[in-house]
Specification:
three-stranded antiparallel beta sheet
Length: 188
């Protein structure tokens, strides 16, 4: 009979050692002295994956929001960037994670009220409006100035006249953009 340690079984299943011990105590996994029967464990794990395929966590490899298991089954401290499966989390880690979430939520709410954070939809709408104004202004140049452009004597004069008209249109939009920016900040 091939056996593995309870810690190794916990690592392979992505569970805590105590969860493995509970399954041993209920007879779902066979054990011999503190060692887990590998065949029994693999059968239990296959059945568990079949019945709950979406609940199978992937054990973090040295990076998580609290602790994770090493290959030898020992727990080690991890960074706070990645989530740990709830089965592997201690009560203290869960409380810490909840407090971090509350603090981050409070900071986001404060930043929104202080005007440091703005909804992306509002910015996208304002930029879209500004692009529409630029497009309309530039497309209006030929219709508004066709008679004067027709009187140009050559390509150089036509080019100079168009550059002047485009420059004026863009300058006007830049000046209008300052007013638009102040109206956007007034909506925030």
């Amino acid at each position: 009979m091939t056996t593995i340690s309870q810690s190794e079984a916990a690592r392979r299943a992505g569970l805590s050692r105590s969860a493995i011990q509970k399954n041993i105590a209920t007879g779902k996994i066979n054990a011999d002295g503190g060692k887990v029967d590998l065949a029994s464990f693999e059968e239990w794990l296959a059945l568990r994956k079949e019945m709950q395929p979406d609940l199978q966590p992937v054990a973090p490899k040295g990076a998580g929001g609290g602790r994770s298991f090493t290959e030898s089954g020992e727990r080690q401290q991890c960074s706070g960037d990645e989530q740990i499966p709830p089965e592997m989390m201690t009560l203290a880690e869960a409380v810490r994670q909840r407090e971090v979430y509350k603090a981050q939520t409070a900071k986001l709410e404060y930043d929104q009220k202080a005007g440091r954070v703005v909804e992306a939809e509002l910015i996208a709408r304002a930029v879209g409006d500004e692009y529409a104004r630029v497009r309309a202004s530039l497309l209006a140049i030929p219709a508004e100035h066709a008679p004067t452009l027709a009187r140009c004597k050559g390509a150089a004069e036509l080019r100079e006249r168009l550059e002047t008209l485009i420059f004026r249109a863009l300058e006007k939009l830049t000046l209008d953009g300052a007013d638009a920016a102040s109206s956007i900040s007034g909506r925030i």
